[in-house]
Amino acid sequence: MLRQAIADHIGPARGIPADPEDIVIVGGSQDGLTLIAQAFGHHCNTFLHEDPCYQGARFAFHGTGWTCTPVPVDAQGIEVERLPERGPSLLYVTPSHQYPIGMTMTLERRLALLDWAERTDSLIIEDDYDGEFRYEGAPLTALRGLDRTGRVIYLGTFSKSIGPGLRLGFVIASPGGGGAAEALEAAQQQLRALAGTGGDGRVHGLRRFPAAPAAHPGALHEPP
Length: 224
Ligand SMILES: Cc1ncc(COP(=O)(O)O)c(C=O)c1O
Known about the structure:
Order of helices and strands: HEHEHEEEHEHEEH
Shape: globular
Distance between the termini: 39 Å
Bound molecules: pyridoxal-5'-phosphate
Structural class: alpha/beta
CATH superfamily: Type I PLP-dependent aspartate aminotransferase-like (Major domain)
CATH class: Alpha Beta
């Protein structure tokens, strides 16, 4: 029921068509980031993030053994031409409202970013932490809503619209047609398992985290 309500909300609100089956409920975005960091280590080599960025994202990835590489932003958003052409990478962005600077990623930049992801077999984490809010005009369609090849892992939260004490967020990582489809499918299963939800979407008992982080081979530790 909760997943159906979220699917009904993000369709019209964020331009994201979603099957409730593809929505994984998590304890807020921070929890979602940790689960993603644990689930995608086998597909991607490097974690890239906006510079400056939300430190919570960096901590989640650094803490699970990823090498974290900053990529500068300008007034339009992340500088796509500075992204590595050798993939696959996992890139974290805040397109609706760059954290902490605050600009919205332009449509041109969003399309260039999706092209880059397809070209390099990379995946993008869209942290849409406050995407429902906009001072002028309607909110822009989320990056995930523009994604035609299943490259964008969408991370939503109710911390800004309802309250952070609720600890309610969700991840959508359903596969598209891209080469990363297999990794997404596997990660989606793993996300469900880590989040402790069965096929019916209900939370079963306490969350179980793996004893050791699922770091990808050769991951280098870098100070936060
Ligand atoms: C950019 C960004 N992402 C994620 C979060 C964390 O949200 P949550 O409370 O859902 O963990 C915050 C919190 O302020 C944030 O600023």
